[in-house]
Amino acid sequence: MPTRPATCPDCHRPIRWTVTEAGRRLAVDPEPHPDGNTAIWRDGNGTLRSRRPTTELPLCGWERLHKPHIATCPAQQQQLALPVGVTRLDDHRNRRRTR
């Protein structure tokens, strides 16, 4: 039985919580993505598990690639702080295009 996606507290988009190989929780986007870097599968207890595919252990047939939500969350992208004296070039480029 599939579970309903939770929502991100920052951007309110749907997410799914997984448990990594280290036992930590990782939020991923609910839809598989071909450019994802996290393999997701459901274990025998129904828990969503996640891992990073490697050359030694590539993606298995029962796993699907997803993107970690932190990589796609617009709220997290805005919160990334740069060191003092460093300018975010994307902000400059966006302002320049709108003039």
Name the average pLDDT. 84
Q: Termini distance?
A: 51 Å
Count up the domains. Answer: 1
Largest sheet: 3 strands, antiparallel
Rg calculated over all Cα atoms: 17 Å
Query: Which spans have pLDDT < 50 for at least 5 consecutive residues?
Result: none
Computed structural class: alpha+beta
Report the principal-axis shape.
globular
Labels describing this entry:
24% strand; single chain; three-stranded antiparallel beta sheet
Question: What report would you give on this structure?
Answer:
The structure is a single chain. The chain has 99 residues and is α+β, with helices and mostly antiparallel strands. It has one domain (6-98). 20% of the residues lie in helices and 24% in strands. The protein has three helices and six strands, in the order ββββββααα. It has helices spanning 69-72, 74-79, 89-98, and strands at residues 6-7, 14-19, 25-28, 38-42, 48-51, 64-66. The strands form two sheets. A three-stranded antiparallel beta sheet has the order 1-2-3, with no helix packed on it. A three-stranded antiparallel beta sheet has the order 5-4-6, with no helix packed on it. Strand 4 (38-42) and strand 5 form a beta hairpin. It is globular, with a radius of gyration of 17 Å. The model has no long low-confidence stretch (mean pLDDT 84).
